[in-house]
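Structural prep section.
Before we set up the soaks we want a predicted structure of the protein with G3I in place, mainly to decide which crystallisation condition to try first. Input record follows.
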Amino acid sequence: MPRRAAQAFTAVLLAASTVTALSHTAAAADSLGSAAAGKGRYFGTAVAANHLGESAYAGTLDREFNQVTPENEMKWDATEGSRNTFTFGNADQIVSHAQSQNMKVRGHTLVWHSQLPSWVSGLGATDLRSAMNNHITQVMQHYKGKIYAWDVVNEAYQDGSSGALRSSPFADKLGSGFIEEAFRTARSVDPNAKLCYNDYNTDGVNAKSNAVYAMVKDFKSRGVPIDCVGFQSHFNSASPVPSDYQANLQRFADLGVDVQITELDIEGSGTAQANNYSNVVKACLAVTRCTGLTVWGVTDKYSWRSSGTPLLFDSNYGKKPAYDAALAALGGSSTGGGDGGNPGGGNPGGNATCTVSFARTSDWNDGYNGEVTVKAGSAPINGWTVTLTFAPPQKVASLWNGTPSWDSSGNVMTVRAASYNGSLAAGASTSFGFTAAKNGNNSTPTLGACTAS
Ligand code: G3I
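Run finished without errors. Recording the tokens verbatim:
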């Protein structure tokens, strides 16, 4: 190519790549599912069939997620409550919804000691083996071709240091071989579904995850069909995100299986929760064989741990700081849409902090007033959130200088700044107050930590 033509060609290429880069930036994904898809992953949620009729629930689900896991509807008690009589109505509703939205479905779960009908526990070994294989066969057959991955066996190992199988009708009567048998049966029914082992407290390197690791290694060496390992990732202050989370995912991936984060929820709020979510998402992205993440519910309102507000959307479907952090970690950016949890729009990764104190300012027979003072740390803040837990049957009758919301028990009150007192200079303070009805209980509410944005 003559030099001038070559220069012109290079200029065109540069211009083209600039345009590509710009348009890529302009089109930054604005939902969890689309941002995850941009990274070759899915981002899903557990779904309960009985909430699909709620428009805010279904709307948030359809807008944000591209994978679903039925929260309870595919479990043994839901699908085969009586022997050999199968009921799929609720699970079918979720699968049809997912298909209409092009969402992947994770099947959860075929063999688990919990939510197991009592007729199963009463069987002798021979009968139990055939009931287990029949259950796997009938359920997988019904959904053949519609399931991305099945949790074939769930939570088979004990917590703690033993590394042993937990006691269950399956382990007790069939011995450890039940896991292998379940996987072999599953492969024979739907060879196109990925077959996973799924567990909790296996998220870091520990005795329990070592036991699962040894099992997967053994299965791979003997050709027992297993394609993936699910890490439930239910985190709270007693069970925080382990520092070796990514390393643990990676060591399983290195055995030649996919890894998936299957039931993610992280109790907390504000910046701390946001940072934890960000770290979990980044860990998955850093492991090539981590194929996707599933949070264990759409909204705090319906979480199995509702009072711990562990999810990405608050009870009003507002995006929490954790949502923004998860989306940012996926390379997307939020376009708003009800950010109930980040009133000041502050950077959840910043150094905004606050402290909080409580005073009971007046008392009478059946009520009292409380005052909560919020003080910014060494940096200015744009918003704050404080949680108070009341002893039932106490009830808050009124509240001023803050915006309250409640968990499903009605006992945990989360208060965010009002529109006029969220922004505080470094070291500055503000307060909100409330009147509570004692209803016969004179306790003082428990004050949670302050989170700032
Ligand atoms: O639907 C009935 C309702 O009719 C009844 O009035 C009510 C009374 O208790 O119970 C309702 O069923 C509850 C069901 O959730 C639906 O809300 C069950 O009692 C309750 O036990 C069940 O809890 C589920 C739990 O598994 C059971 O072990 C949670 O929703 C579900 O999130 C949870 O999910 C598990 C995963 O499958 C495995 N890993 C741990 C994870 C969290 O525990």
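Observations: The chain is about 35% helix and 25% strand.
Flagged for discussion at group meeting.
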